[in-house]
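Long-time lurker. I teach an intro course on protein structure, and each term I like to show students one example going from raw sequence to a predicted 3D structure in token notation. This year I'd like something fresh instead of my usual example. Would anyone be willing to generate the tokens for the chain below so I can use it in lecture? Attribution to the forum is fine with me.
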Amino acid sequence: MIGLIVSGHLNFASGMASAVKAIAGEQENMVFLDFIESISPDELEQQMRSTIQAMPCEQIVFLTDLPGGTPCNRAMVIMMENPLVEVLSGVSLPMIVNAAFEREGVTAKELIAILQEIGISSIQDVREQLSAVSESEDEEDGL
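-- Reply from a regular --
Happy to contribute to a lecture. Here you go:
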């Protein structure tokens, strides 16, 4: 099983933790680390490193909120030192929930590819979809 560390600015991680628990239930080896105003970037990195040490997983994937933000950058420093760590940034709730479901029986790189596909497919223009459905119904009615 791949260990997952979700991190982001302010309460991004704890908010995602609540949503993941509601959708997917309690998850083993999935930790949520908020980067709040009261901790420094160095403290966040230390929390990340401590979390990795406490996880009994060979591979770790960081899921962070903003590419180029402090959580991403600090996870990237760790990734550069450890070939068993990967970082995916710009993640959304569908990606994080699916990470919980898809992380067994795949490599970290395979999991990242799966999550990127989910991220792209979950972005939808609802008005456009409704228009397409409406148009297809009109065609079926012979209008």
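Some talking points for your students: The chain is about 55% helix and 15% strand. The mean pLDDT is 95.
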